[in-house]
Write a structure and sequence with these properties.
Helix content: over 70%
Strand content: under 5%
Order of helices and strands: HHHHHHHHHHHH
Structural class: mainly alpha
CATH superfamily of one domain: MetI-like
CATH class of one domain: Mainly Alpha
CATH topology of one domain: MetI-like fold
Largest sheet: none
CATH architecture of one domain: Orthogonal Bundle
């Protein structure tokens, strides 16, 4: 199962490949540490690390202002995720459908919205569609374009997971007399989703980053609130470093959640496999002579 999941994203590297990856990782970390040290040195020289410049971020009004933006970011991301992830499955199944019109429409949607820049789509909802009487609330002027684009991306992620499931699973479901729809829902999709959990979490992080485009429609997400705050306090470096730290913490939490979810789903999958093997052994065992 693990090797199949790995092949969804890339070919598993050999010993030399893993050694090169470790070397490049160490070099990248050293380079990053050097850049951080240089940045801190420059900030110290220019007085940006002074206590008076960081003290405002310990005061309640500043924190409440940023917290409002954080809630806006989480709201937009959650709405986009709740709609995008299920629709991505539907669109993936549509592209794999044996019904040609459904397959053509699904493929056309995926290719179209994977090609359109998200920013252009947001401008369309902000400037073009209101002229035709389609004037959504500010939140949905941001969330709907994010959904339209990310559904297409998620559909390809799900499709890759479905195609990575061993063909024997389809044949076993057919041998048991399961209809195609039931086999896909009960047998294939659970395995496919386990394979692409890392990619799904990566796309969730992308949704979080896409919400930073809320400034275009004046939606009060975290980056928009940070921009407003800098216009009043002129603490540009400090404000954006605090906001960057918030994004890093959220992304780390999402990564840990992905690892936990992958382990949990892996254990569940192994347990089901053991149960199936036990049932098969029982079915094939010779009956005792009376």
């Amino acid at each position: 199962m693990t090797s199949a999941a790995t092949r969804v994203l890339f070919d598993e590297p050999g010993p030399r490949g893993r050694a090169r990856i470790r070397v490049f990782t160490v070099l990248a970390l050293v380079l990053l540490a050097g850049l951080v040290a240089l940045a801190l040195y420059q900030f110290a020289r220019s007085g940006q690390l002074g206590r008076s410049r960081w003290l405002p971020f310990t005061q309640l009004p500043y924190l409440a202002f940023l917290a409002e933006g954080f809630v806006g970011t989480i709201t937009a991301t959650a709405l986009a995720a709740v709609v995008s992830f299920p629709l991505g499955i539907v669109l993936a199944l549509g592209r794999l459908s044996t019904v040609r019109p459904v397959r053509w429409l699904s493929t056309g949607y995926i290719e179209l919205f994977r090609s359109i820049p998200l920013l252009l789509l947001i401008y369309a909802f902000l400037l073009a569609l209101p002229r035709f009487g389609i004037n959504l609330p500010i939140l949905w002027k941001l969330v709907v374009p994010i959904i339209l684009v990310n559904v297409a991306v998620l559909a390809e992620v799900y499709r890759a997971g479905i195609l990575s499931v061993d063909r024997g699973q389809f044949e076993a479901a057919a041998a048991l007399g399961l209809p195609n729809g039931v086999a896909m829902r009960a047998v294939i999709l659970p395995q496919a989703i386990r394979y692409v959990v890392p990619s799904l979490v990566t796309q969730l992080v992308a949704l979080l980053k896409d919400s930073t485009l809320g400034y275009v429609v004046s939606y009060p997400e975290l980056m928009k609130q940070a921009t407003n705050l800098t216009s009043y306090t002129h603490l540009l470096v400090q404000t954006y470093l605090v906001v960057a730290l918030i994004y890093v913490v959220v992304n780390l939490l999402l990564s840990r959640f992905a690892e936990w979810l992958e382990r949990r789903m892996g254990r569940r999958g192994r347990t089901k496999a053991v149960d199936v093997e036990a049932e098969e052994d029982t079915a094939h065992a010779p009956r005792a002579m009376v």
